[in-house]
Amino acid sequence: MDVGFIGLGRMGKAIAVNLLRGGHRLRVWNRSGGAARELEPLGAEAVAQPAEAAARAEVLMLMLADDAVTRAMLIDQGVLERLPAGAVCVNLATISVAAAQELSRLTAARGVAYLAAPVFGRPEVAAAGKLNIVVAGDAAAVERVRPVLAAIGERIWPVGAEPERANVVKLAGNFMIASALESMGEAAALARAYGVTARQLLEILTSTLFAAPVYQGYGRLIAEQRYTPAGFSLTLGLKDVRLALQAGEAGHVPMPFASVLRDRFLEAIAAGESDHDWSSIAELAARHAGVPDSAAAADPGG
Amino acid sequence: MDVGFIGLGRMGKAIAVNLLRGGHRLRVWNRSGGAARELEPLGAEAVAQPAEAAARAEVLMLMLADDAVTRAMLIDQGVLERLPAGAVCVNLATISVAAAQELSRLTAARGVAYLAAPVFGRPEVAAAGKLNIVVAGDAAAVERVRPVLAAIGERIWPVGAEPERANVVKLAGNFMIASALESMGEAAALARAYGVTARQLLEILTSTLFAAPVYQGYGRLIAEQRYTPAGFSLTLGLKDVRLALQAGEAGHVPMPFASVLRDRFLEAIAAGESDHDWSSIAELAARHAGVPDSAAAADPGG
Amino acid sequence: MDVGFIGLGRMGKAIAVNLLRGGHRLRVWNRSGGAARELEPLGAEAVAQPAEAAARAEVLMLMLADDAVTRAMLIDQGVLERLPAGAVCVNLATISVAAAQELSRLTAARGVAYLAAPVFGRPEVAAAGKLNIVVAGDAAAVERVRPVLAAIGERIWPVGAEPERANVVKLAGNFMIASALESMGEAAALARAYGVTARQLLEILTSTLFAAPVYQGYGRLIAEQRYTPAGFSLTLGLKDVRLALQAGEAGHVPMPFASVLRDRFLEAIAAGESDHDWSSIAELAARHAGVPDSAAAADPGG
Amino acid sequence: MDVGFIGLGRMGKAIAVNLLRGGHRLRVWNRSGGAARELEPLGAEAVAQPAEAAARAEVLMLMLADDAVTRAMLIDQGVLERLPAGAVCVNLATISVAAAQELSRLTAARGVAYLAAPVFGRPEVAAAGKLNIVVAGDAAAVERVRPVLAAIGERIWPVGAEPERANVVKLAGNFMIASALESMGEAAALARAYGVTARQLLEILTSTLFAAPVYQGYGRLIAEQRYTPAGFSLTLGLKDVRLALQAGEAGHVPMPFASVLRDRFLEAIAAGESDHDWSSIAELAARHAGVPDSAAAADPGG
Question: For the whole model, what pTM was predicted?
Fold first, then answer.
């Protein structure tokens, strides 16, 4: 299909490569031009203005930082105005529920279908074409873009006709990850207070009940207290928890765990660690308890 | 080995059967005699008084309801007094850190080693001999009872010489399970407020990031709102969170998630649901948000 | 002084009356014209457009509903444009820290000083000219408007040169009131569970340790479960807690009590009580505990 | 009346002095004999064994540290055994609801009425005979001891026939004080983040809405960050919050503010400050936000 693609960060670029490999025609734009030009040898056309990526596109895919950048791109930069009627706008990024609702209205007014299609998976997963894509919006539009989504993801999870539903699922998922981080942090602090290291505790639990990617991957970071460089920073973690809380507030959903998480992110950021991995909130329980880890010294005694 | 075994509830009985199958000699006692007699065809000797199970035992295994019952058995019923010096007392139950410390002192004073050996796994897992056993206490005693533990568990996780360490690991694990329940509950409430059913949400998340036994098993119960009969009741859940909080308090470990969980258990119990499965705390977020599930009616739209 | 006054709700009107009584010349505007015309017999000039209230004013006073209305008035309605350079804009309303910072920049760019001057006190207090006024902004501008503030308040509390400081103090004060409500609610639920009525408990405590206006006034509402009509609604309470949390987030200040309050307001609003008095959050602890009050039946036993 | 009095700490001694001044005959005992002998010149008889204080007493008054000490005194030291049938046991201390229920049963079995009569007021207030006394238990027994209570308190607040009700009121009151401390702490942290000192903020609020003894007294300590010597230590604060939570748990009352407070006390104690005044929990919000106070440098700008 003819695809316009805007936003070539680590995730966006990996996805664009898979679209090219899948035989789709891409016109790409990125704030810094380098990433766009790097895709040219693979067949992409790097354009000078974002609106040119939209012109003649059957599908416009967006992978931008946040609500503000996305709105500025579609509206202020004239991207939406150039998008042909009948095209489908597929937003792969994690934005707010409110922004999804607003963008859905704005695109509909121009005869463009808006699909929210946030993805689960890190850059490596994106590069392997193995993303899980949660998609919501007009069912016919979802069918139309299925070949494009199939090129980048392992599985597509449709969740209904209102685009914001996909954003809610994504925010709920990230909230659950952050909750897992905090629960490992409190459990590890409790264990440390009795001389059991985070490594011992998490090895047992992530080999058994919690043998899931989230616990094993982050459990290792926590056991090793290895929080830099960040895979996903505290700043981004705070953003997503804030979006979940805002979506909850609009729907009158109290979320006490999310509130605890918000406070954790704020405290870690106040301590100057905003660029640490979000799993570093697991240190706060131990810090409050005055039980720094002693993994190096400890002998499991077994 | 010569094993005394006291406490033949669902877990205890399944474990005792595996010990018999493993060739160990068992003298068993249970409050209600039926369970003990049922083991006789398998070779166990059912005794009339708990202290008789202890007499001549190389290993005394306990699987009793709580601190009070365990202490009453060892002290008031004279079990500890009858246990031969040099024997090893292996407590498989989830008791408090404080009780583990006390029992360890009392047994040591009589020349008996005390091992805390709480297990992860439900009755089916116990029946299959696949328990994960966290064990703490004197290393030589752990070695001595290894043949017994090997007969009932898939893997033994030693965590050091202080018995209470194993209790802490067990309580930390149960706290993490309860945290997973609450995080699914809040995520599901958020999703429901936007028309996504708990079933849709949890199918996506437990097939991907959260593909772990805890999330998949309990996710199914939550998606189906199937909380009776309980696998593990709210009353037991509250008990274990309380024990985690008490252990945290003794070690000066603030645990904000554990406090939220405590309030959830109390509220559900106040609502008259004490015998529901502990996963039913996942309903409270939705109840507070006024978003009952509509799984039956919903069409994922894809 | 020549005063333009925009926003004649219950508070605004009571304040405007005191300005007129104090000998100041007022040009007034309100969304619904009635309130403005009612002030004409007292000497006010009711104008047809908000910008006319600003023209020729030495002081422009605003008492509007929220950030959005205030910004729309100053910018979109052209009020700021008409305000003479050298005038002082005094915002009496509780708005967000971020909006105060923005409005301060915008007015400064036009040679107008911006003072945030939120007030503590209900309409009766305003009518009596007994408000407590927290004021922040340029010190010389504060001095200039002192005669105006003296006409409406009992005491002026300057808190520095950055306007948003006054908003922070106001939000902190409202947060403390809401915290007092919740603490009375939890205390009353605990008491009720043991047969002590909220009335008994709060009579004792608000006659002794907590003999302060906030506790006595709201304590009475809680004891009598009299939440309608609202003096200050749950919706407004949620707004102010949200503003406190947002200000906290911008300054990286975790506020666990504020997060609990947010959840309380959301739950009460989800239950359809958005127009109840904000003190009704005190019922939620009792509701969760399953202990409705029984004040009518109870006999204090003394 | 003939009064036995056990427990002459700062509070107990001040109360005993007022009983002597009121013309009552006292036999006193204290763990360290000095305090008892100091009362002899005022007419008290210092006895060598606690049980001697009980013999011949019409009223036995207790002011002991906690549940364990109180129970040990009444049971193990034989005090209850020596108390004449028909006597009234008046426990002035803050003990747990569960202990009050147990002691009430034990005394009743010996024909002794048990009254819980915890007091509000610090040692100076006790010395001035101005305590507020919350009393619960058999109404006739309350009448009988009224002359004694009148000698030590300004006002008596009867709350019913079940003794534990008075303990619940006392615990609820202390919980509300601790909540006020935390709310001042979070409000002050928010203010500090915007350059308003705790002193400025609390001067405004405790002169107006929060003009109550609790806020003014503790507000001053917080504004001055003066937490030693403690009037009431963090250790005692944690004890009382724990008792409130336990009473709540027994009655299935979730108390989210109380849980936040528990975590605050634990964190401050973990930081090695267990002997600081309990108002020092107000520092934790600021510490988490990275905004130490700067009261000395600040100029209110007015």
Answer: 0.95
Q: Does B270 touch chain C (CB under 8 A)?
A: yes
Q: Which H or E run contains C102?
A: helix C97-108
**Which of D183, D208, D251 is closest, CB to CB, to C193?**
D251
Q: How confident is the model at residue A87 (pLDDT cuts 50, 70, 90)?
A: very high
The sheet that has C113-116: what strands, in order across it?
Answer: C45-46, C25-29, C2-6, C59-62, C88-91, C113-116
Cis peptide before A229 (omega within 30 of 0): yes
> Contact, D42 vs D17, CB < 8 A?
yes
B288, C263: Cβ pair inside 8 Å?
yes
Tell me the backbone φ, ψ of residue A48, rounded to 5 degrees: -85, -30
Q: What is the pLDDT of residues D121-133, one digit of tens each?
A: 989 999 999 999 9
> CB burial class (10 A; 0-12, 13-18, 19+) of residue B22?
middle
SS3 content of chain D, % helix, strand, coil (to 5): 55, 15, 30
The candidate with the shortest Cα–Cα distance to B67, out of B96, B45, B43, B106, is: B96
- B167-289 to CATH, choices 1.10.1040.10, 2.40.30.10, 1.40.20.10, 3.30.360.10: 1.10.1040.10
Is C288's Cβ below 8 Å from some Cβ in D?
yes
Task: Determine contact: A218 vs chain B, CB below 8 A.
Answer: no
Rounded-to-integer distance, Cα C188 and Cα C181, Å: 10
Cβ pair C209:D209 closer than 8 A:
no
CB-CB contact of B82 with B51 (8 Å): yes
Question: What is the reported pLDDT for A292?
Answer: 76
Sign, CA torsion C150/C154/C158/C159:
negative
Q: Tell me how crowded residue D274 is: count the other CB atoms within 10 A of its CB.
A: 17
Q: Say how far apart CA B292 and CA D277 lie, in whole Å.
A: 46
What mean pLDDT is predicted for residues C252-265? 98
Residues of chain C neighbouring D252 (CB-CB closer than 8 A): 193, 289-290
Which pLDDT tens digit goes with each residue over C16-44?
A: 999 999 999 999 999 988 899 999 999 99
Residue C200 structure tokens: 């008994």
Distance CA C190, CA C196 (A): 9
Coil, strand, or helix at residue C78? coil
The SS3 of residue D180 is helix
Runs of H (alpha helix) within D155-255: 164-193, 198-207, 213-224, 234-250
Please identify among residues 110-129 of chain B the ones whose CB lies closer than 8 Å to any CB of chain A. 120
The set of residues, in sequence order, having a beta carbon less than 8 Å from that of C117 and lying 6+ positions away, is C90, C91, C92, C133, C134, C135, C136, C149, C166
Q: Do D260 and C255 touch (CB under 8 A)?
A: no
Quick one: how far is CA A192 from the chain centroid? 32
* Residues 6 or more apart whose Cβ sits within 8 Å of residue D109: none
Alpha-carbon distance B29 to B9, whole Å?
A: 11
CA distance C230 to C218: 11
Q: Does C193 touch chain B (CB under 8 A)?
A: no
Confidence class for position A293, pLDDT limits 50, 70, 90: low
CATH number of the C2-162 domain = 3.40.50.720
In degrees rounded to 5, what are phi and psi of residue A95?
-115, 180
Give residue limits of the domains in chain C: 2-162, 167-289
Buried b (16+ CB within 10 A) or exposed e, B209-222: bbebebbbbbbebb
ipTM confidence: 0.95
How distant is the alpha carbon of residue A205 from its chain centre? Answer: 26
Contact A301 B136 (CB under 8 A): yes
Over residues C110-168, the pLDDT tens digits come to 999 999 999 999 899 999 999 999 999 999 999 999 999 999 999 999 999 999 999 99
Question: Helix or strand or coil: residue A134?
Answer: strand
